[in-house]
Amino acid sequence: MNAHLQPTGSAYFIAKETQVAESHTLSVLVDNEPGVLARVIGLFSGRGYNIESLTVSETEHESHLSRITIVTRGTPSVLEQIKSQLERIVPVHRVVDLTVRAKTMGQERPIEREVALVKVTGSGEMRAETLRLADAFHAKVVDATVDHFIFEITGKSSKVDQFVAVMKPLGLSEVCRTGIAAMNRGPQGM
Amino acid sequence: MSGTENQMTGAEIVLQALKDNGVEHIFGYPGGAVLPIYDEIFQQDDIEHILVRHEQGAGHMAEGYARSTGKVGVMLVTSGPGATNAVTPLQDALMDSIPLVCLTGQVPTTLIGSDAFQECDTVGITRPCTKHNWLVKDVNDLARIIHEAFRVAQSGRPGPVVVDIPKDVQFATGTYTPPSAAPAQKSYQPKVSGDARAIEAAVSLMKGARRPIIYSGGGVVNSGPEASRLLRELVEITGFPITSTLMGLGAYPASGKNWLGMLGMHGSYEANMAMHDCDVMVCIGARFDDRITGRLNAFSPNSKKIHIDIDPSSINKNVRVDVPILGDVGNVLEDMVRLWRAGAKDYDKAVQGDWWTSIAKWRARNSFAYKHSDDVIMPQYAIQRLYELTKDRDTYITTEVGQHQMWAAQFFGFEQPNRWMTSGGLGTMGYGFPAAIGVQVAHRDSLVIDIAGDASIQMCIQEMSCAVQYNLPVKIFILNNQYMGMVRQWQQLLHGNRLSNSYTEAMPDFVKLAEAYGGVGIACDKPGDLDGAIQEMIDVKRPVIFDCRVANLANCFPMIPSGKAHNEMLLPDEATDEAVANAIDAKGRQLV
């Protein structure tokens, strides 16, 4: 059938997405050189990928290696494409999809932890309630005056979310979260 | 490797590193931040510098040089505007996988970040349009980085790289490290040999095919002449039909008996129908671009797909394939040919009999047909005559972007790789003329022709001055229809024939323009005069602008309107004014 008999279209074809998006955690081992983080972030913004969380720090000082942990959201084919695109960056050594690897080992997810500092201000009865709840969450007091606490809490993002939520009515004034650090279970290295 | 014998200034290191990487020509434009390097260029004779008239021209020249020789193209520009003008050719080279080393000057390290005169964040601006880039902050890193730049540019999937060199680093003295002693970055080690099991799986799939097709691309040309030879051998021993992308033309000869012509939006009917109906597709060094596939969910619906590519991110990007083979096309083809030959006794090409009958029927549709005229030159006719009059010569063709580019691809027969330079991925108007100059620099005695449009040629016309300065007898063959023809064609298809800004009201007199630059101008508007005029153009050993006045309203067919499948082509004999106007409905028009 020829085109003019069934006319639809445009200068580009705009496809409908049928796959379901999933959230995955990627570990990226890179040379610690200037601009490497910009290359990774530029790839995500330039190609329209999502970043839900990103952490980066040098892991092996002598070999100048840094580890970037990215939580991203996309359909399985987009996630596969993200991994290949990251591998193409010259200073990238390895890219591991920790979520995929966890699944192949029969686990739900890799170990994912986040640290948050949470400042809560207030006085009177509320302070006792604040401390009691913090204790229940295993949050540590790292600074305090008669008017405030700063708590350090470590755990899954959902636990941090929950802690922040319960602190809200108790005088939450400031939150700083690190983003996710992640690793697969078991003896095998990355 | 110590002592004083290897002590040099940064500028000396640049020249020494270029020589040690086999560079003979560089294309560039001086400026404040690269003066020390230009001073070194002045004091040596090993490397010839070609002075361009705009940095974009330098980039496209380096691309044409690289594409026609298989070597790395080198450009040298100053900081700030020099670097930003290089962005278009860098992105062009990135999309078409052309190895390019771009050296940029930068303000002194102490001034970086101070908004100094002619400062820009070159590595920041060029990060997304290069394969990799470097800012050199220490003169002792300079040699290693330049060597690494050449390695990255030409290995794996080739591409452009930028080395940004601050002016104080050019003046500073440091140690020169030769290429053999320079450490390579460990994280970048592209895989060239294909997985043996994947290749076996591919060959067994190919053996079982009843309706096979080979779809090859620019990767075959990039892989080198041996890859093209192996591709021809594979076609010969398998008897498979073969089509190619725009970038891959010439890898398999247009005169070859299994050749179906180019595929895609303006490809041949037989190539697109065969892609749609095949049962096994062998994609070799191509990337399933949207101009190739048409509507993705209707792309070759019933085939098993094999994909050979050196870039892992090209695999399963647009189209899911059944047998991915990661590796250099040349290496993989060598294994594939050997494996096929080993089991060739059991294979009977007769199983493809019905398939070739179908192909013959599609071919008979004669999808490139056009109505000849004795009064006006049809653009297709102009390309055909140009081809006939140049095919027995040592000819290289470049193009700009638009209708003329598609007609050149359809009607000019390419017999060898590296003879066809065009901007495929980025579609850069203004590419063809500087690219032709770059080709001519590498092949001084060859016939180099830029097939151009009247709009595209004006985007880098200033390089006439460069061609005249270096006695580069490049021929510009303009198919002049006074329109941005492809823009007009889409306005006819999508926008109710409202020709918004696609007509050029004030066209220069191209003959006088050529003469003003010191070149030769030729004009022709009669089909009967065309052969003589083309011959005159060939015979002149100076830069020529050939103003070929063609039928103004001719359009480029066949065509797969976007969002259509391969078997929904608009064929020339069905493309009446009414059919063109109604090819895309109101809903489609809203999409882009």
Automatic annotation (TrEMBL), chain A:
| Function of the molecule | Catalyzes the conversion of 2 pyruvate molecules into acetolactate in the first common step of the biosynthetic pathway of the branched-amino acids such as leucine, isoleucine, and valine.
> Which pathway does UniProt place it in?
Amino-acid biosynthesis; L-valine biosynthesis; L-valine from pyruvate: step 1/4; Amino-acid biosynthesis; L-isoleucine biosynthesis; L-isoleucine from 2-oxobutanoate: step 1/4
User: GO molecular function of the protein, one example?
Assistant: acetolactate synthase activity
User: Which superkingdom is the protein from?
Assistant: Bacteria
**Keywords assigned by UniProt, alphabetized:** Amino-acid biosynthesis, Branched-chain amino acid biosynthesis, Transferase
Describe its assembly: Dimer of large and small chains.
Give the UniProt family note.
Belongs to the acetolactate synthase small subunit family.
* Residue ranges of domain ACT in the record: 25-100
Alphabetical list of Pfam families matching this protein: ACT_AHAS_ss (PF22629), ALS_ss_C (PF10369)
Q: Which residues cross the membrane?
A: none
Reported EC number(s) for this entry are 2.2.1.6
* Protein name (Swiss-Prot/TrEMBL): Acetolactate synthase small subunit
Has UniProt tagged this entry with the keyword Calcium?
A: no
Organism source for this protein? Shinella curvata
List the catalysed reactions. Answer: 2 pyruvate + H(+) = (2S)-2-acetolactate + CO2
TrEMBL record, chain B:
Q: One Pfam family, please name it.
A: TPP_enzyme_M
Q: What is the lineage of its organism?
A: Bacteria, Pseudomonadati, Pseudomonadota, Alphaproteobacteria, Hyphomicrobiales
Indicate whether Magnesium appears among the record's keywords. Answer: yes
Recorded family membership: Belongs to the TPP enzyme family.
Domain (Thiamine pyrophosphate enzyme TPP-binding): residue spans on this chain: 401-548
Keyword annotations for this protein, in alphabetical order, are: Amino-acid biosynthesis, Branched-chain amino acid biosynthesis, Magnesium, Metal-binding, Thiamine pyrophosphate, Transferase
Q: Could you tell me what the cofactor note in this record states? A: Binds 1 thiamine pyrophosphate per subunit.
Has the keyword Phosphoprotein been applied to this entry? no
Kindly tell me the pathway this chain contributes to. Amino-acid biosynthesis; L-isoleucine biosynthesis; L-isoleucine from 2-oxobutanoate: step 1/4; Amino-acid biosynthesis; L-valine biosynthesis; L-valine from pyruvate: step 1/4
* Cofactor(s), by name: thiamine diphosphate; Mg(2+)
Q: Which organism is it from?
A: Shinella curvata
| Protein name from the UniProt record | Acetolactate synthase
Indicate the segments forming the Thiamine pyrophosphate enzyme central domain, all copies: 199-335
Gene3D superfamilies named in the record: 3.40.50.970, TPP-binding domain
Name the EC number(s): 2.2.1.6
